[in-house]
Design brief:
mainly alpha
């Protein structure tokens, strides 16, 4: 899965106050933002679309995990190299 980076504008004094009070409560700003984005995604993206995307992510991960087979040209070159070796 490839992540995107979001950039938002927010008043710096408000951000300072927010991080100060979140730190006192040992709350994680990044985690809270991730949770909020997930809730927005679930609220606005239809269930069928979310299921399609989850399935696509799963299939992409499975393809990534499979060991790669050598390409046909690599296999042919290896065989030709063996034929040229004197024994």
């Amino acid at each position: 899965m490839k992540n995107a980076t979001l950039t938002i504008s927010f008043d710096s004094e408000k951000l300072d106050a927010l991080t100060y009070h979140m730190d006192k409560k040992e709350a994680d700003l990044q985690g809270e933002l991730n949770d909020t984005m997930q809730k927005l995604y679930e609220k606005h993206v239809p269930q069928a679309t979310r299921e399609y995307i989850e399935d696509k992510i799963k299939r992409d991960a499975e393809v990534k995990d499979k060991p790669k087979r050598p390409s046909r040209s690599t296999q042919t070159s290896a065989i030709r190299g063996q034929d040229n070796n004197p024994a």
